[in-house]
Amino acid sequence: STDDPSSTGHEQVVFCQDTQTGLRAIIGIYSTALGPALGGTRFYPYASEEAALADVLDLSRGMAYKNALAGLDLGGGKAVIWGDPAQLKGEALLRAYGRFVESLNGRYYTACDVGTYVADMDVIARETRYVTGRSVEHGGAGDSSVLTAWGVFQGMRAAAEHVWGTPTLNSRRVGVAGLGKVGKHLTRHLLDDHAEVVATDVDPRAREWVRANHPQVELVDDAAALVAADIDVYAPCALGGALDDETVPALRAKVVAGAANNQLAHPGVEKLLADRGILYAPDYVVNAGGVIQVADEIEGFNFERAKLRATKIYDTTRQILRLADEEGVPPAVAADRLAERRMAEVGRLRSIH
Ligand code: NAI
Ligand code: K
User: Fold this and answer.
1) Rounded to the nearest whole angstrom, what is the distance from the C-alpha of residue 116 to the centroid of ligand 1?
2) What sections of the chain are H helices per DSSP?
């Protein structure tokens, strides 16, 4: 349903090409109802232009919902650069891309995503003001995994309160799948809250980091072992699609709350979770700390202000879980409804004159 831009509800889709550098990019603006569209640039060797377009349409729509529930005065957008970053990425290509971003006059702000890094944003910033996720030396917010993990922890606290009555992970067994940038910070917050952490990562260096820094964390072989383990909370912090027709029936946790994007492998998995009595804190609600961190750059980065905003993920998650109960729908559906309500109600005010 996403291959015809005229039928997807997007405001604007911009195709960019620079033959000298080999740049082919698509910028998708789903909505500017709440403010300029913010979302990262994915640099990826898509199999076709159709695949790149489908991805940017999906991702930009997702950002509109995420930014709306993060309480930001920002709409949703995303960009893809189609090609192999290892072959194509360089100063000239990134600057050519930056000029396209600049040409939208602030309707779209970019940031890092898969295949783009803080250093790339610094290069793009030489051509446009409309870029976040720059390095600290360039006035940027730096590594966004810090507040992503903080926000996931807040969302998890709200889920714990909903299920067990108190907003703490104290004495709960939490399974962390993926000990990367976010998983490491999250593990620290959980240990500080006196949770028991069980974890896994495919990368031996990540496992070594845990053994050296947090010997009390129990390591298991893989994500499947974590799913089957006797845990209270499952925190997917690696790749998308962690929840599918195989993992959900095997899952022993009562709560799922983690950082990974697109945790539900396909539509309908949210219903499988609900039917098994597993509370799923929607991924895009609890992992919004990262976008909150980079969005703060637009006002001149202030870590404490951004952290306060990310702390509110606790309140938002609570509100969504209550709404889900009231309306008899899975939390993922309640989250979408709340996001759509904010975009409609506040978006209307912005269009009054
Ligand atoms: P990362 O790349 O630093 O960490 C991912 C970790 O997962 C790596 O250590 C990797 O070895 C491990 N991993 C990969 N496949 C695995 C598997 N099958 N089983 C176990 N471990 C596996 O990425 P980061 O930044 O920590 O992000 C984690 C997730 O959170 C990603 O899905 C990302 O899209 C999402 N996210 C990250 C944000 C951020 O600010 N960094 C913001 C919002 C979402
Ligand atoms: K729209």
Assistant:
1) 14
2) 49-69, 85-88, 91-103, 118-124, 145-164, 181-192, 204-213, 223-228, 247-250, 269-275, 283-286, 289-295, 303-311, 313-327, 331-350
